[in-house]
Write a structure and sequence with these properties.
about 100 residues, mainly alpha
Length: about 100
């Protein structure tokens, strides 16, 4: 059961990461020419990705603090680290555009 939950969380993290990367690549190719090189769709995506990333950090903190298993605590800590990094990268991309 633990493996299934950890696997599902890992898959979710990978999907969010892939969507973030795809959005970053798409943002580079769809300029609007209005003071920002991001289209409305790109901006919407970035906002949703940021919310999702913040949620992942929050869930990781809960897992890290409340889990019974050391494996789940470790995974929670990894979620916080990885998604905090992804959130920082997303902020950087947004501020550059």
């Amino acid at each position: 059961m633990k493996i299934k939950i950890v696997s599902q969380l890992c898959i979710l993290a990978l999907v969010i990461g892939a969507m973030s990367l795809a959005g970053g690549a798409r943002a580079e190719t769809t300029p609007t020419g209005e003071g920002s090189s991001l289209s409305t769709k790109d901006k919407t995506f970035m906002k949703k990705a940021a919310k999702g990333g913040m949620m992942e950090v929050a869930m990781g903190k809960v897992a890290e603090q409340n889990a019974q298993s050391d494996d789940v605590k470790s995974f929670g800590k990894r979620m916080v680290t990885d998604h905090s990094k992804a959130n920082d990268e997303l902020k950087s991309i947004g501020s550059q555009r």
